[in-house]
Amino acid sequence: MENPSTAVSMELTKKEGLLERLGKWMPLSLSLIMPVEVILLFLLIVPSFISIWLSLVSWQPTFGIGIFQAKFIGLKNFIDLFTEPRFLWAFLRTFYITGVTVSLEFLIGLGLAVLVYKPFPGRTFFTLILILPMMFPPLVVGNNFYMLFFAEGPINALIGYVLGGPFKFDWLSSPSYAIYPIMIAEIWQWYPLMFLIMISGLRGLPPNQLRAAEVLGGSPWQIFWRIKLPQLKPIILIAIVIRTMEIIKMFDVVYIMTRGGPGTLTETISIYMYKIGLKNFRFSYISAGAWIVLIASVIIFTYLLKPLLYKVEKFEEKIEEGAEE
Amino acid sequence: MRGTRYEATDYVRMVVFIIITIIVIFPAYWMVMTAFKPMDEWLKYPPVWLTLRPTLDNLKSILGMAKGTIINPAQSAAGPAILKGLFVSVTATFISIAAGCMAAYSISRYQIGGNFLPLFILSARMFPPIAVILPLLVMYTWVGAIDSYWGLIVAYAGFTIPFSVWMMKSFIDDVPKEIEEAAVMEGMGNFEVFYKVTVPIIKTGILVTALFVFILNWSEFLVAVTICYQNVETAPIFLASLFSAVAGTLYGHQAAMGLIIIIPTVVFGYLIQKHLARGFTFGALKR
Q1: Whole-number pLDDT of residue B20
Q2: Helix A28-40 / helix B149-174 crossing angle, nearest 10 deg
Q3: Which of A5, A302, B169, B196 lies most in the core, judged by the most C-beta atoms within 10 Å?
Q4: Which residues of A touch B3 (CB under 8 A)?
């Protein structure tokens, strides 16, 4: 080890770069976090304040005045939104789509993960092929399913083969069925993520406990329900929260496949806000709508996220214990 | 698992997986097949399951290389859109990674901002982008960033920062602190430790995160379609414009464009396949 005085002299003679000088002026940790802070300030914090102001006034870009000259109307935008059926339906529909697709994705992902858990010929190959859909951009997925579901497309042809006659049905312009191709597209694209998460969850389970259960004569069924599934809980929760977060924002697939049509029957929150905000230019109205959605999702996620963060820590501790045993 | 003896049930499972794979792969197969179909087979009923006359016409006319066949009069070729999209995505990825890496180090090693800051960064991902876009548009008109490259680049960098910070944080957390402490003992300054010790150790992690963020930027559509009008284009915008032009009749061209768009995402996706779960769960899953 060097003696302290030479270390100090080395420190003094060393040429100081910009970063070092910055580090002396500000603590290191603060200067490192700065770029992210600046970007977030520009993209999140300032827009939030503008958005709050917009939601309380009556303003459209077509008015030809600055946003600060706009008339203050208090909570009128919010009240109007809560009494507009189209908005409320888009809201409910988004949660309906989220509920159905997330649960189906989860079941498919978990089922497949359980099936590939034990080795069989070609396991790696099939695993790799099955995660292909998640590498497609959502817009391309929408395009693919648009081509599959049109009236003379392959899906109808297959149904025709099963029924034994030509079958032509325009899925995407049918009022009661247009939503299903959208859900199928969403499930097709994102079950692989659930699948991957569940595989890594199953592989992370402490092996000793499973072996003990086997030795003690537990059937595979019992081991799955009593030991594997309860231990997977935190991971399942992560997967569901993350998928919910993303599906609530769903836009690309719907935009390509139906544009919210026929009429407004497949509009999700994002599509609704896009149409009213950017096609009809009702900026302040939609800003208010955005805050309603934000508050709703924050409420949902604080309920889901708090136990999540705690449980993830617990889970990792458990895995470490399992590895040490 | 070399030398494993398989039982009969394992072969049954293999057959089950062959069937599942065929179902799953079909939408992708259909796109690739349509991309190579001649025009008269796009809309045939019953559909042409396997074209016997594969052609490159669709790809050529999308890229503006075919003579005489214009996609449609109002439409330019995809070339500029692809190049512009690449430029924007690569630049935004670079910014997002550089800023994200530093922030992740600061969060991981100095716990800056306690529990609040990491969650605040994550919250940027929780909000529907459309909620941020309207005020952003107002702001962009003030600073003249509408339909400009830097406007789109900054937006992309910002929207992917939660991913780059959290993913990189999970990589930095894996590095034992002792290595850095040893470097400090050797007389390195704190910054030197960061860029001469930590960054080289996690360079695979940085590359993985960069590819992941690039995929997100390259596929992004909503932000691009709201900020861009004429000057700036990305590949997804071009694909969507094929729809609005002549609704539902350009299947071959749409499929060809889809094929071009997925090439980088699928290649990079498989390169970082082991880390995809980590990326999408913001580093919560490390295997």
Answers
A1: 93
A2: 140
A3: B169
A4: none
Domain assignment present for residue B71? The answer is no
Q: Tell me the C-alpha distance between B48 and A163, whole Å.
A: 19
Q: Is residue B160 located within the same domain as residue B28?
A: no
Q: CA-to-CA distance for A70 and A62, rounded, in angstroms?
A: 12
Answer yes or no: do A133 and B16 touch at CB < 8 A.
Answer: no
Q: What tokens does A253 get?
A: 């697939």
Tell me how far CA of residue B277 lies from CA of A260, A279, B45, B212, in angstroms. Answer: 31, 37, 40, 11
Give me the domains of chain A, ranges plus CATH numbers.
32-74 (no CATH), 79-324 (1.10.3720.10)
Q: How many other CB atoms are found less than 10 A from the CB of residue A10? A: 11
Contact A242 B127 (CB under 8 A): no
- Give the orientation angle of helix A138-149 with respect to helix B251-271, to 10 degrees: 140
Distances A38 to A165, B95, B110, B238 between C-alpha atoms, Å:
62, 12, 19, 31
Least CB-CB distance to B103: which of A32, A128, A137?
Answer: A32
> Do B58 and B83 share a domain, yes or no?
no
**Same structural domain, B172 and B54:** no
Of A150, A256, A312, the CB nearest to B243: A256
Helix (H, G, I), strand (E, B) or coil at B178: helix
Substitution target in B2, B6, B134, B214 with the highest count of A β-carbons within 10 Å is B134
Check if the beta carbon of residue B95 is closer than 8 Å to that of residue B153: yes
CATH number of the domain to which B236 belongs: 1.10.3720.10
**Quick one: tokens of B111?**
């716990």
If asked whether residues B152 and B249 sit together in one domain, one would say: yes
**Which residue range forms the structural domain that includes residue B158?**
79-280
B69 inside domain? no
Q: What is the pTM of this model?
A: 0.88
Q: Are residues B42 and B125 in the same domain?
A: no
- Chain B residues whose CB is inside 8 A of the A43 CB are 124, 132, 136, 154-155, 158-159
SS3 A178: coil
C-beta atoms of A50 and B248 within 8 A: no
CB nearest to B13's CB, from A120, A133, A291? A120
**pLDDT class of A118 with cuts at 50, 70, 90:** confident
Of A13-22, A115-124, B47-56, B236-245, give the lowest mean pLDDT range. Answer: A13-22
In this structure, are residues A257 and A271 in contact, taking their beta carbons and an 8 Å threshold?
no
